Known about the structure:
By secondary structure, this protein is α+β, with helices and mostly antiparallel strands. The chain has helices spanning 4-24, 145-188, 194-197; strands spanning 28-30, 36-38, 44-46, 49-51, 61-65, 68-74, 77-78, 91-93, 105-107, 116-121, 131-138.
Amino acid sequence: xxxxxxxxxxxxxxxxxxxxxxxxxxxxxxxxxxxxxxxxxxxxxxxxxxxxxxxxxxxxxxxxxxxxxxxxxxxxxxxxxxxxxxxxxxxxxxxxxxxxxxxxxxxxxxxxxxxxxxxxxxxxxxxxxxxxxxxxxxxxxxxxxxxxxxxxxxxxxxxxxxxxxxxxxxxxxxxxxxxxxxxxxxxxxxxxxxxxxx
Length: 198
């Protein structure tokens, strides 16, 4: 005979496991929060990564500029057979860093025609966010103190936001666990049922 105590205990275990998965989150593709500016005839890295980090070496990674194929990685290697002619010999991924979720694209010898909205996509990713966008503008790049401060400010804000969300998830999990334990104790303290505890 199945006892209510065993059912409730199993349910609480499953609920706790789901809470841990929610706190950790499914991997998602993340691009930069600001447009990227590059100078003509220089190289640029279009940042894109998975959060939390996930080994993508066995997955497909697609880079496109509108409908043009910029770079394709599949079957654990680059597949440049679909690559648009204007990108031939000018793109590369950071293969050694892909185990940590880095799917950034290096684009060399930038031209004005390279400007636009790039998408980095992991089509078989288990998660809701399978692509990120990187806006590239080509022109004069300002490396003055304001620009450096802006970059530092954005990085700091991202770290603070990520830390706050993690702390919030942990606090929520702890509170939910404590409340469940309290309910569990009420239900089974004197052998009463769930109706008596509530």
